[in-house]
Write the structure tokens for this entry.
Amino acid sequence: MSGRLPVKKTYKLYIGGAFPRSESGRTYEAQDQNVARASRKDVRDAVQAARGAQPKWAAATAYNRGQVLYRIAEMMEARVPEFAELCSGKDEVHRAIDRWVWYAGFADKLSQVLGGTNPVAGPYFNFTIPEPTGVVATIAPDEPPLLGLVSRIAPVLTGGNAVVALASETQPLAAIELAEAIATSDVPGGVVNLLTGHRAELAPWLASHMDVNAIDVTGADGLRAELETAAAENVKRVVSGKPDSQSLYEISAFLELKTVWHPIGV
Amino acid sequence: MMAQAPVLPRGFELPLKQRLPRIGSIDQVAVEQRAAELAKRSIKKDAKVWALELALRCCDLTTLEGQDTPGKVAALCSKAIRPDPSDPNVPSVAAVCVYPNLITPAKERLAGSGVKVASVATYFPSGQAPLDVKLRDVEDAVAMGADEIDMVIDRGAFLSGRYAKVFDEIVKVKEACGAAHLKVILEVAELGTYDNVRRASLLAMAAGGDFIKTSTGKLPGAATLPVQLVMLEAIRDVHAETGRKVGMKPAGGIRTSKNAIQYLVQVHETLGPDWLTPDLYRIGASSLVNDILMQLRKEKTGAYQSKDYFTND
């Protein structure tokens, strides 16, 4: 025997910390590969996993959340050549890694920057703290395939939300590679869920899902009006950002500011 | 010596003495396999809605906690009458199941609604008290207006082979119930084997129980599909031999509507459609009701639902 048969990778979904095939067994072709084509039941399972994982992720200390996000950057750094093949190249990968680091640094600075004590005319101690919105659905943009996805989900995670992201329909491979980096970086299972498949088929189920608290329609293209209408049923927060931005406001878009009036004994 | 079984309306005399020691042994592997097989049925769309509504109509909405208050029971009763406040087409549940002290507030709230009040009694959940204490418990519950009594058997006596004591107690409790329906809780998690489950089922039916019920809900590993199958087959055997129809109530651990439908499929396959009614089948549940409501609303609106929009209790 000479040489060996290379082991080919099956591109799967990432739900609840595991890599299942689509419940429906379907696949579709993208980037010359057979990629899992998620069904609405996969959407349902992903939201359920996100809902289950979110409270613990939100309860982790901000410092710890930052460390875990930084760890994603570390894991990606070790896979730069693999990532580079699946997106526009090394430059995009490096920028995606740096994006994780930037947001990781913000995890324990959020409440200082966005929260605070407020002066009020009364015997009250009044303060404001940012809290995560809950489960966020992200419709990732097609371009750039890796940096776009990272730019949209990193701020969501920084604030303590769990995310169900729908990867680019045409270029989903980088998202699956990213799932493998996330799976090895101490992000608790279920906090990040990545689905691949037909956007027009899956996005409406996310938009109408009553257990999803916010939806990011950045990559929704022509579906936007339909998604926003469906999202109105439970008054989801609808966010539309830039595919490639890095800003504190991307984090605060997925936070609720809770203001507390606390009586002081006088 | 065993007490004389009561004269029952539909004529029911099992030759108990000869039968109990020789109940035949249960094939554990086969029972579990058959239960797993029946759980694979796929019930969709209209059939699913029908099954969900049936499951809801068969529910005994239960709260059995030390912290129960009249206020909580009042809220539970409102939910029992109209489980989904936004949709009057969703049917009421069969009964509310409470501790004896909460029968009165439950009775007041449910007056005229058709929803029954069930009360646990006989020193629930352990049953480890003298017989006269248990009987007083039952008499008080009936006097306060309970339509149904959920009694526990004395597992200590059963496991040590004193079947006659268990039998006598059920007979006496049945007498004390008067017109109230009697459900006999076997607490299968403490019985250990399927053989014991079958033995206790036959014992409870022979002694006059109107229903046999799996569990108190106080222990993990309560109702399971194989256990229900064993009990349903005991009910079927009694029906075949005497024509008497005894009801079944699984309780504890049924939390999802998918699971509830699996239980219903098993009833249909084992006893037939006659048993698919709240008169002969109940599900003891608290969190199940919300899951059914979420599924029904999903079928109605087409959108997946969230616990956030349904009441906790």
In short: Residues 40-59 of chain A form the longest helix (20 residues). The mean pLDDT of chain A is 95. The interface with chain B takes residues 43-44, 47, 205, 208-211, 230, 233-234 of chain A (CB under 8 Å).
